[in-house]
Amino acid sequence: MMPDRRAALQQTSVPTFAQMLEKVRYEGAYPTRERAEEAVRLVVAGLGRQLTGDERVELAACLPHEAARILAEQIPDTEPLTGWAFVKDLAARTGASLATTRWDTGSVLTTVAALAGPELLTRVLRRLPSGYALLFGRAELPQPVKEAA
Q1: Which one of 39, 52, 71, 128 has the minimum C-beta count within 10 Å?
Q2: Beta-carbon count within 10 A of 92 CB
Protein backbone atom coordinates (compact mmCIF):
# COMPACT_ATOMS: atom_id res chain seq x y z
CA MET A 1 0.00 0.00 0.00
CA MET A 2 2.88 2.40 0.56
CA PRO A 3 3.72 2.94 -3.14
CA ASP A 4 0.12 3.96 -3.86
CA ARG A 5 0.19 6.33 -0.94
CA ARG A 6 3.51 7.84 -2.03
CA ALA A 7 2.20 8.31 -5.59
CA ALA A 8 -0.92 10.02 -4.26
CA LEU A 9 1.16 12.37 -2.10
CA GLN A 10 3.48 13.12 -4.99
CA GLN A 11 0.58 13.89 -7.32
CA THR A 12 -0.96 16.36 -4.86
CA SER A 13 2.36 18.17 -4.38
CA VAL A 14 2.93 18.81 -8.10
CA PRO A 15 2.43 22.51 -8.78
CA THR A 16 0.40 23.82 -11.67
CA PHE A 17 2.16 24.95 -14.83
CA ALA A 18 1.28 28.55 -13.92
CA GLN A 19 2.97 28.11 -10.54
CA MET A 20 6.05 26.65 -12.19
CA LEU A 21 6.17 29.59 -14.61
CA GLU A 22 5.91 32.07 -11.75
CA LYS A 23 8.78 30.36 -9.91
CA VAL A 24 10.93 30.44 -13.06
CA ARG A 25 9.91 34.05 -13.69
CA TYR A 26 10.97 35.00 -10.17
CA GLU A 27 14.21 32.96 -10.20
CA GLY A 28 15.20 34.22 -13.64
CA ALA A 29 14.02 37.80 -13.08
CA TYR A 30 12.07 37.64 -16.33
CA PRO A 31 9.95 40.71 -17.14
CA THR A 32 6.91 38.69 -18.22
CA ARG A 33 5.34 35.30 -17.70
CA GLU A 34 5.52 34.74 -21.46
CA ARG A 35 9.32 35.10 -21.39
CA ALA A 36 9.52 32.60 -18.53
CA GLU A 37 7.33 30.20 -20.50
CA GLU A 38 9.63 30.44 -23.54
CA ALA A 39 12.56 29.49 -21.32
CA VAL A 40 10.65 26.59 -19.73
CA ARG A 41 9.55 25.17 -23.07
CA LEU A 42 13.05 25.44 -24.56
CA VAL A 43 14.95 23.96 -21.63
CA VAL A 44 12.49 21.20 -20.71
CA ALA A 45 12.34 20.08 -24.36
CA GLY A 46 16.14 20.05 -24.46
CA LEU A 47 16.27 18.00 -21.29
CA GLY A 48 13.79 15.57 -22.82
CA ARG A 49 16.23 15.02 -25.68
CA GLN A 50 19.00 14.13 -23.20
CA LEU A 51 17.38 12.10 -20.45
CA THR A 52 16.39 8.44 -20.74
CA GLY A 53 15.35 5.57 -18.51
CA ASP A 54 13.36 5.46 -15.29
CA GLU A 55 14.69 8.87 -14.28
CA ARG A 56 12.97 10.43 -17.28
CA VAL A 57 9.64 8.87 -16.29
CA GLU A 58 10.03 9.79 -12.62
CA LEU A 59 11.05 13.34 -13.43
CA ALA A 60 8.02 13.78 -15.69
CA ALA A 61 5.82 12.65 -12.78
CA CYS A 62 7.24 15.50 -10.65
CA LEU A 63 6.47 18.19 -13.21
CA PRO A 64 3.19 19.93 -13.98
CA HIS A 65 1.26 18.17 -16.75
CA GLU A 66 2.23 20.66 -19.49
CA ALA A 67 5.95 20.49 -18.63
CA ALA A 68 5.81 16.70 -18.32
CA ARG A 69 4.27 16.48 -21.77
CA ILE A 70 7.00 18.70 -23.26
CA LEU A 71 9.67 16.47 -21.68
CA ALA A 72 8.02 13.20 -22.73
CA GLU A 73 7.32 14.25 -26.33
CA GLN A 74 11.03 14.55 -27.11
CA ILE A 75 12.93 11.73 -28.74
CA PRO A 76 16.21 11.23 -26.88
CA ASP A 77 19.34 12.01 -28.89
CA THR A 78 21.57 9.08 -29.74
CA GLU A 79 24.65 11.07 -28.70
CA PRO A 80 24.15 12.72 -25.30
CA LEU A 81 25.54 16.22 -24.89
CA THR A 82 27.72 17.50 -22.05
CA GLY A 83 26.25 20.34 -20.02
CA TRP A 84 28.10 23.00 -22.02
CA ALA A 85 27.20 21.39 -25.34
CA PHE A 86 23.58 21.31 -24.13
CA VAL A 87 23.62 25.09 -23.60
CA LYS A 88 25.28 25.65 -26.98
CA ASP A 89 22.68 23.44 -28.68
CA LEU A 90 19.81 25.39 -27.12
CA ALA A 91 21.42 28.69 -28.13
CA ALA A 92 21.80 27.46 -31.71
CA ARG A 93 18.14 26.42 -31.82
CA THR A 94 16.92 29.87 -30.74
CA GLY A 95 19.61 32.19 -32.03
CA ALA A 96 20.03 33.59 -28.51
CA SER A 97 23.42 34.37 -27.01
CA LEU A 98 25.23 31.76 -24.96
CA ALA A 99 24.95 33.98 -21.88
CA THR A 100 21.18 34.34 -22.24
CA THR A 101 20.75 30.63 -22.90
CA ARG A 102 22.92 29.73 -19.89
CA TRP A 103 20.75 32.03 -17.75
CA ASP A 104 17.55 30.46 -19.10
CA THR A 105 18.89 26.98 -18.54
CA GLY A 106 19.88 27.65 -14.94
CA SER A 107 16.62 29.42 -14.15
CA VAL A 108 14.54 26.51 -15.42
CA LEU A 109 16.68 23.61 -14.23
CA THR A 110 16.99 24.92 -10.66
CA THR A 111 13.18 24.95 -10.56
CA VAL A 112 13.09 21.43 -12.02
CA ALA A 113 15.63 20.35 -9.37
CA ALA A 114 13.41 21.67 -6.59
CA LEU A 115 10.43 19.76 -8.00
CA ALA A 116 12.44 16.55 -8.41
CA GLY A 117 13.96 16.54 -4.95
CA PRO A 118 17.54 15.64 -4.02
CA GLU A 119 17.34 11.84 -4.44
CA LEU A 120 15.85 11.88 -7.94
CA LEU A 121 18.10 14.76 -8.98
CA THR A 122 21.17 12.77 -7.93
CA ARG A 123 20.02 9.87 -10.11
CA VAL A 124 19.24 12.21 -13.03
CA LEU A 125 22.73 13.70 -12.80
CA ARG A 126 24.28 10.22 -12.78
CA ARG A 127 22.46 9.42 -16.02
CA LEU A 128 23.56 12.63 -17.79
CA PRO A 129 27.09 13.39 -19.05
CA SER A 130 29.31 15.78 -17.10
CA GLY A 131 28.48 19.45 -16.79
CA TYR A 132 24.82 19.34 -15.80
CA ALA A 133 25.15 19.65 -12.02
CA LEU A 134 25.89 23.39 -12.14
CA LEU A 135 22.96 23.91 -14.51
CA PHE A 136 20.71 22.32 -11.86
CA GLY A 137 22.26 24.49 -9.13
CA ARG A 138 24.50 21.81 -7.65
CA ALA A 139 28.27 21.53 -7.35
CA GLU A 140 29.86 19.26 -9.94
CA LEU A 141 31.42 16.44 -7.95
CA PRO A 142 34.27 14.49 -9.49
CA GLN A 143 33.53 10.88 -10.33
CA PRO A 144 35.56 8.28 -8.45
CA VAL A 145 38.38 6.83 -10.51
CA LYS A 146 37.82 3.15 -11.28
CA GLU A 147 40.88 1.01 -10.82
CA ALA A 148 41.71 -1.56 -13.47
CA ALA A 149 41.13 -5.10 -12.28
Answers
A1: 52
A2: 11
